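Hi everyone,

Forwarding the result from last night's run.
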Amino acid sequence: MSKININRVSLASLVIALGIIYGDIGTSPLYVLSAITRDSIPGRFEELIVGGISCVIWTLTLQTTIKYVVLTLRADNRGEGGIFSLYALVRRQRKWLVVPAMIGGAALLADGIITPPITVTSAIEGLRQIPYLHRFLPENDPAPIMIIAITIISMLFFVQQFGTDYIGKLFGPGMITWFLMMAVIGSMHLVDSVSIFKAFNPYYAVRLIIDYPSGFWLLGAVFLCTTGAEALYSDLGHAGRKNIYWTWVFVKICLIINYLGQGAWLLKQHSAGTLDLSQNPFYAMMPQSFRIFGIFIATGAAVIASQALISGSFTLISEAIRLNLWPKMKIKYPTEEKGQVFIPGINTLLWVGCLCIVLHFRSSDKMEAAYGLAITLCMISTSILFANYLIGRRSKKRWVVLYLFVYLLIEFSFLGANLNKFPHGGYVAIIVGGILFGVMYIWYRSRKIKNRYVEFVRLEHYIPMIQELSNDKSIPMYSTHLVYMTSANNPKEIEHKIIYSILNRKPKRADIYWFVHVDILDDPYTTEFSVEHIIPNDIIRVEFRLGFRVEQKIQLMMKRVVEELYANKEVNITSRYDSLERSNVAGDFRFIVLEKFLSTDNELPFSEKLIMRCYFWLKRISLSEERGFGLDPSYVHVEKFPLIVSPSRNMNLKRVYPRGEEV
């Protein structure tokens, strides 16, 4: 898979695109019509079905096709997509754009917790429509379905640690089978009621929203047909824009045929007086002899949809970590495939979240209440960020205004309709998304608070003292090469705490002092470095310029830099100890990590104090600084350093003398 050029359209790349990006939106026919017909009104059933499917068709057209496939996919960050890739393109325009980026990221993660339960449970519930399984799966007992769903979900999360390189090769053919099955079954029922073709006229969608008693609130059910559109954009880097263009035509045709087929079948059953709304129309319209195979294929598609959301969540968090919007976490790369990551902590979080969703809601129809509400916030955030992208590209103002007006109107309408779900389970999605947003906000805001009080000094003022220390034989040698990580963007500056660590806190004599700075860029995969010899063979600054999707393996990168400098005779890495120097032994390297803690000598406003306390709590349970930079702990010395962001000044202290005399 990794050897296929996704930037070119080929049969192999099209199959891969089908397998990677359409799992979520492709499984929506499992539950959309069930959600729309759940609260049907007697005497107005045809109006509901025709209008509901018209809403689905035009939602797929306006929201998925035009907004995402035609427009948003153009905002690629060197071939990569997703809310954080889009944010990286526009974050230097306006600082407040970080807020919609964090809201969108949190909402997408919340969606990743709800998608596996609803898709897998919806697929498994089809077993109830197999006559000879009724005795094992009674309608009033959700436990058997829950057990099967929990087992499948648990197995899915278990295999994440091994990577999905080989499993992923089956996704494309699996999804082709799924879409073809939907199209064939849907087309078998298109002539059941030819009035269903009126759904192509948007008049019936508007009429449903305005005239039907609960028409506006039905948008919450309609919205389920497009929940995978955001994931489609996030997987741009795995499929390529041209492949998405071509495959979406096929996918949309299959989806619409199936929706029309379900609608025509429902109208026929209603007119014949044999309609049973307790049955899922997706399975009910299948031939009885094929139904068990259809359920098997649907379950496979549900697993693929879940896998896509899980992999997308790993990528999303890894991007957030690089952009300093999430605490550092352990990241593994189970295969050599580009972009494939595994984050054990997030895997556990998603697994526990999915199990809680299944145990709490117990059936897919109740899960629908929690599904869709959070993702509308993500789509609104994408609209805001994309509008700023258009502004940055100097698009005409009237087009930007038109884009915002149309899509904010559509998405706020969906949000309003989805708010009706809040008391029925939507609160779960909001709580989950709110917690995830809170983590991002605390991590981002605490960094801003710290940066207000970070003290930088001119390095040139301390160079003579560092050189004297390096040559002072009365002080024991601390290390041949001493490496500090610095956040100073200006190569002529350095944090005061680093100077304090070298000169004041147990003076550290070394032959060469290295100051290493990592600059995270707005493009995804840049790996560059530059070297500045401040004092040749004494003080050297190395700056790494890394893309926001590049793993920060600083120790390995430093080894590569030192090897190149040594080969070019720019640095002498031989140990300066007489006995070792004669044998041409390379000197040792020691990394110093300054780990901050919140000093009690602080006076902060209550809100900032709360943020900083939460920050240090998150820091304790997240990955350590040295592991976050990819450093071997055996080469690292950690120094505790007090963070005094707002020193206390009001201290009433007076001196008293013996005998009580006061001066």
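The first strand starts at residue 456 and ends at 458.

Cheers,
N.
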